[in-house]
Amino acid sequence: MASEAQTSAEYIRHHLTNLTYGQLPDGSWGFAHSAEEAGSMGFWSINVDSMAWSVGLGLVFLILFRAAAAKATAGVPGGLQNAVEMVMEFIDDLAESIFMHSNDLIAPMALTIFVWVFFMNLMDLVPVDWIPLLAQAVGIHFMKVVPSTDPNITMAMALSVFGLILYYSVKCKGAIGFLKELSFHPFPPKGVFAPFAIVINFALEFVTLIAKPLSLGLRLFGNLYAGEMIFVLLAIMFGGGAVLFLAGSAMQWVWAMFHLLIVFLQALIFAVLTIVYMAQAHDTEEH
Fold first, then answer.
1. Mean pLDDT of 30-35
2. The Cα angle at residue 100 between residues 94 and 102, in degrees rounded to 5
3. How many domains is the chain built from?
4. How far is CA 1 from CA 138, 150, 253, in A?
5. What's this model's pTM, rounded to 2 decimal places?
6. Strand pairing partners for 29?
7. Which domain holds residue 252?
8. Enzyme catalytic residues
9. Structural domain contains residue 183
10. Is 10:1 a contact under the CB 8 Å cutoff?
11. How many C-beta neighbours within 10 Å does residue 39 have?
12. What is the pLDDT, as a whole number, of residue 194?
């Protein structure tokens, strides 16, 4: 919580600053000591906390599902097996209802995206000061624990999906077929105006194509970043006396209950849009 030695603006800035490693102004490599220093490091810097938490939560996902698979039984299942089977059946049914083509990659990819993003989003429900204070106790000044509030993480996932969209678009339709899809729709190129129609079509369809990774990455980032900001603002109230402390506590519980829905929905939306975009990439129907 914000203290007398730290203004509200400094408190907010501290909680929204990543632990960044990169090239320092003197030419050496190390961790940034301020948000301004992190911003000056350029493209080759890395947000170590976002990477560590995202990879760590991915490992948690693998360990939990591997443990459920190892202990799976045809008899009365345990709680972990029930939970894992419920999630897998939910995503599998979702993939089958949206993706009408044959590709064994789609359902496992959607499952991975849903659970991984859900775990990353779920970190937003950890009280904002707990882990940063523990990190400071061991000498780590900055520590952001919600990877999905870092656009580098969300856009990296979105661009990975986008790469698969391009790959399957070319694989299923052929390079010429994919270019035709971008150039011959929505206006049929006929007569003397055909070149103009192709240019307009390509411009419109290219924007639609580029919007896919942007809609995936920025939607997730924006919703979770806004949620994190609200938690930080509510935490500032804890240092404003007994009345504000009680009000802030009550409001944090209310927001946490509502934000739990956002945590789930944003993971689901990312997975659903991935399935939809992959289905469009496989669709070879002529318009």
1. 91
2. 105
3. 1
4. 19, 22, 16
5. 0.92
6. 23
7. 8-282
8. 215, 219, 223
9. yes
10. no
11. 12
12. 87
